Amino acid sequence: MKLKKAFLITALVCFWIILPNSDTGAAEPNPSPKVIIEQTTFEFSPVIAGTEVTHLFSISNKGNATLNIPGIYSP
Questions:
Q1: Which terminus of the chain has fewer Cβ atoms in its 10 Å neighbourhood, N or C?
Q2: Which string of b and e fits 8-39 if b means at least 16 CB within 10 Å?
Q3: Coil, strand or helix: which one is 60?
Q4: How many Cα atoms occupy the beta-carbon half-sphere of 7 within 13 Å?
Q5: What is the pLDDT of residues 24-66, one digit of tens each?
Q6: How do residues 18-32 score in pLDDT, each as one tens digit?
Q7: Where along the chain do its domains lie?
Q8: H/E element holding 59?
Q9: pTM as predicted
Q10: How many Cβ atoms from other residues are within 10 Å of residue 63's Cβ?
């Protein structure tokens, strides 16, 4: 009897831990974008005044809604 009770308790604990983390494939109730920016800063080396300097920042959306970027600003 004690073995059955221990097994039942263990099974319930495992079920309680696994269930909230499982992916049921259902859509999230509130879809939202999730922006991923691998490199958020870049240190430019000294350049001659008037020289055009560029750097590409990769931005991706790992969310389940459209990511809108209305503008990019630098400090």
A1: C
A2: eeeeeeeeeeeeeeeeeeeeeeeeeeeeeeee
A3: strand
A4: 4
A5: 555 557 899 999 999 988 888 899 999 998 989 899 999 999 9
A6: 545 545 555 557 899
A7: 25-65
A8: strand 59-61
A9: 0.46
A10: 14
Phi, psi for 18 (deg, rounded to 5) = -75, -40
User: Are residues 57 and 37 in contact, defined by beta-carbon separation less than 8 angstroms?
Assistant: yes
Q: What is the largest CA-CA distance in the chain?
A: 83
- Beta-bridge partner residues of 37: 59
Note whether 46 and 33 are within 8 A (CB).
no
Dihedral angle over CA of 24, 29, 30, 34, nearest 10: 0
Placement of tokens 């590409």 in the chain: 56
Nearest-angstrom CA–CA distance, 8 and 4: 6
